[in-house]
Amino acid sequence: MDFRNDSDGDDAFGGGVIEQTALIRHRVNELFGFEPKNKQVEAIRHLLYDKRDLILIAKTGFGKSIIFQALPLIEEESKQASLIIMPLNLLQEEQAEKLKTIPGAKPFILNGDTNTRKNRHEIGAGAYTHSKRNYLGITVDTLLT
Predict the structure, then answer these.
(1) How far apart are CA 96 and CA 39, in angstroms?
(2) Using alpha carbons only, how large is the chain's radius of gyration in Å?
(3) In what order do the strands lie in the sheet with 81-86?
(4) Backbone conformation region of residue 118, classed left if phi is above 0, alpha if psi is from -120 to 50, else beta
(5) Per DSSP, what are the bridge partners of residue 106?
(6) 8 Å CB contact between 48 and 75
(7) How do strand 81-86 and strand 134-139 relate by DSSP bridges?
(8) Which residues contact 71 (CB under 8 A, 6 or more apart)?
(9) Do 123 and 129 meet the contact criterion of CB atoms below 8 Å apart?
(10) How many angstroms separate the CA atoms of 96 and 137, rounded?
(11) Is the Cβ–Cβ distance between 104 and 132 less than 8 Å?
(12) Residue 56 in 3-state DSSP?
């Protein structure tokens, strides 16, 4: 999905998704205290209900963080994890600090400093991917090693 030129217009999602859209809007408002943009709701819905991967390209200030932060929180019984690939360690650290404020959230950052055999084993064993409210941040350089 490419939202670089997002006007946040009222795009129709089609039949059968009105309840899903309403739930997403309600939960984002309840969790974060604001009304999400239509394109944010569309991206969350794409991930949560269509069960498809998402590569999101959006301008600065769009609110990309809310999409991955909200995903594991909207479906309370879900054991989905968010995998976030970020170009900079500083961005990961900032996001992890924000995520730590969410009750029950379990963020983990894998980068050059934390890319150890022990941590990779824990990730492989599901420590950060098979329970509620998990977030795994990885830097691009870590993916390439």
Answers:
(1) 24
(2) 16
(3) 81-86, 134-139, 106-110
(4) alpha
(5) 134
(6) yes
(7) parallel
(8) 44, 47, 48, 80, 82
(9) yes
(10) 8
(11) yes
(12) coil
Look at residues 27, 34, 35, 26 and name the one whose alpha carbon lies nearest to residue 70.
Answer: 27
Helix (H) or strand (E) holding 85: strand 81-86
Per-residue pLDDT tens over the stretch 9-49:
434 333 468 889 999 999 999 888 899 999 999 999 998 88
- Is 137 in a helix, a strand, or coil? strand
Sign, CA torsion 28/100/76/78: positive
CA–CA distances in Å: residue 16 to residues 13, 19, 21, 42, 103: 8, 7, 10, 14, 31
User: Number of C-alpha atoms within 13 angstroms, CB side, residue 103?
Assistant: 3
Lowest mean pLDDT among 3-12, 17-26, 47-56, 66-75: 3-12
State if pTM tops 0.70: no
Identify whether the C-beta of residue 67 lies closer than 8 Å to the C-beta of residue 42.
no
- Cβ atoms of 24 and 44 within 8 Å: the answer is yes
- CB count within 10 Å of CB 26 equals 12
Domain locations in the chain as residue ranges:
1-77, 79-145
